[in-house]
Amino acid sequence: MSKTITISPVTRIEGHAKITIQMDDRGNVVDARFHVNEFRGFEKFCEGRLMWEMGGITSRICGICPTSHLITSAKAGDDILAVAIPETAEKLRRLITLAQWIQSHALSFFHLSSPDFLLGFDSDPATRNIFGLITKDKEFARRGIRLRKFGQDIIEVLGSRRIHTPWAVAGGVREPFDAAKRDHLLAWIPEAKETALLALTTLKSIHEQFAADIPNFGSFRSMFVGLVAPDGALEYYDGTLRVMDGSGNVIADKIDIHKYDDYIGEASESWSYLKFPYYKPLGYQKGMFRVGPLARMNICDYIDTPLAEDERKVFKAIAGKAEAVNNSFYYHYARLIELLFAVEKAEMLLHDPVMLGTNIRARAMINRRLGIGASEAPRGTLFHRYEVDENGVLQKVNLIIATAQNNLAMNRTVRQLAIQYIDGNRITEGILNRVEAGIRCFDPCLSCSTHASGRMPLHVQLLDCEGTVLSELRR
Amino acid sequence: MAILTLTINGEHVSGKDDESLLAIAQQHGIRIPTLCHLDGLSDVGACRLCLVEIEGSPKLFPACTTRPQEGMAVSTDTERLRRYRRIIIEFLASEGNHQCAVCVVNNHCELQNLSYETRLTHVSVPYLYPKKELDASHENFIIDRNRCILCTRCVRVCHEVEGAHTWDIAGRGIACEIISDLNQPWGTSESCTSCGKCVLVCPTGALIEKGEAVAEMEKKTDFLRYIVNARRKREWVNVDSDEE
């Protein structure tokens, strides 16, 4: 008799989801799906609101990466005002974007993923978390928590609060920076750099330890999409879109973000609230692509900070010649390289005298009826598209969130892991956790991506071919 | 004009017979919460937050529009009044669409401050989520009726101080709302002088300046005192000429 396993809720990700695994009557996995079962409706209820409010409203989507929404929204706002923002404002926005990367990447690695690596996939789920980690290696956990604090600290210093700061606005930013704040942040840099390097060393030792598991963590070819700087460098705030295939060939480049709609389509499925963006030229399903650290590391030509660039070269070697790194497990590696980059780049920016300027905001009224903003959120490229009337009242809103763009790939990863590890009727906690960990590679943030609120528990169901629940595991 | 003696919360106070209980209380440093009242504008008793108890009457009286009487015993801070004030704020919250977190006047809002002051922790009646219009047609200002509590400060300042009478109230009961001129988009109003007084006196984020983002706007009502004082002292009269 065929059956379906459901893992619900999925733990240690941001949001609420479940996984179902469909078995045939011989006990072989035929399909597995990652369902996101929350709905929030931001695109709809923002209609009729004011363009100027969008930074404040959209950043409330989530408490993990509100700053990414704030910045992207402010950029869409700049577009509607048709202004070039002051140089100081742009650099300050860049710094807060890096801060967002630092706090989110540190959270993803130290708090959410490292318990799997350091305590083992088969260890007791009750202690396989940040608290178990603290018990096992207090100093390591403390360093991780402090690195995240550094990111939060930058956000607080610039925006007066750690979460949901309304500091960036259409036209620039609200408050300037000063030398005392700069010195406070610079004092963090040595420790932050050391911790980022420690994270990399730790992860690389894990690569050997989990050599047998890694090939099953979503290893498949897909396209990679992200922003790159005009000279091809790793980009986080601006730039143009680049699309690379799974063999490392750049198939589209220098795409103006205003044309994103020509390249990225959004499909829906009845079984998930998370949309399925795809690369339009190849159509739905075939157009599966990945965004986020793995994609950014693949598509960029270089990184303009020395330590991260050295590490990027090691990363590229995993793929071999002219290949992209296709294994989703290496999201973790790419994420940590970015973490190091963000610390190095923040240091460079902090030394830049332009940061202390006081011309930080361009004022203008509605000069365009359409505004598009894009930036690299920790989990990938984030797009905000606003259509407004002549008074700045929103007529239509489209938000394309990084996690959604990874949806097809996350489903593929779950399927691959289920096929590899589940045979017949035996489902162990360790197997479920590997499936979950597959999802966790992408560091999905479901609150943003379904525009949903949530806790993050895990629910797995095993169903027969009629859809009857045979067994269920809830955490 | 006569000077009367009365008690407020057991304390002996005196006031003029043409002053309101609210004014007398304020002169003696006794705080009564208000929302529709603003020094410099006439009082209409619209918000009911300043309700007080008067010994010998089961009714409650709005302090802003009640005159004193000799020997009156007034209570401004009883358990019943505190409960009623909290319920008033609760109803205001449920009748509009007040989302403080994303509001332009977050942290600078009188309604929000009163919610804290009356210790409103939750709203126990169902939210009505009314569909209200946001009008951004004016060049400099916006009216968001979702956040309007119908205190009518804008109506009064426009009529009494600016003399334009752009704002008025249309509809009845729950359908009541502030309109400009003949219920037309604000931007097309012929009477509006774009002085912005209504925006500054609005206690919530219903009337705001264009281009301001979340929590960015702080209402300053000091101007009203200057204008009213100047008018009372006839400061605009040219002292060197005989003309008034």
Structure description:
The complex is a heterodimer of chains A (475) and B (244). Chain A is of the alpha+beta class and 475 residues long. Chain A has a domain at 220-326. Chain A is 41% helix and 20% strand. Chain A has 16 helices and 16 strands. Chain A has helices spanning 42-45, 54-59, 66-81, 87-119, 130-136, 138-159, 179-186, 189-209, 260-263, 293-299, 306-319, 331-350, 402-405, 407-421, 429-440, 446-449; strands at residues 4-9, 17-23, 29-36, 168-169, 172-173, 223-228, 240-244, 250-255, 264-269, 272-279, 289-290, 370-377, 380-388, 394-400, 458-463, 469-474. In chain A, strand 13 (380-388) and strand 14 (394-400) form a beta hairpin. In chain A, helix 4 (87-119) packs antiparallel against helix 6 (138-159), helix 4 runs parallel beside helix 8 and helix 6 packs across helix 8. The radius of gyration of chain A is 22 Å and the shape is globular. Chain B is an alpha+beta fold. Chain B has two domains: 3-77, Roll (Ubiquitin-like (UB roll)); 83-232, 2-Layer Sandwich (Alpha-Beta Plaits), CATH 3.30.70. In chain B, 24% of the residues lie in helices and 16% in strands. Chain B has six helices and ten strands. A five-stranded mixed β-sheet of chain B has the order 2-1-5-3-4, covered by helices on one side. In chain B, strand 8 and strand 9 (177-180) form a beta hairpin. The two termini of chain B are 28 Å apart. The A-B interface holds A 48-50, 52-53, 55-57, 60, 164, 166, 169-170, 174, 363, 365, 391-393 and B 101-102, 104, 134, 136-137, 142, 144, 187, 210-216.
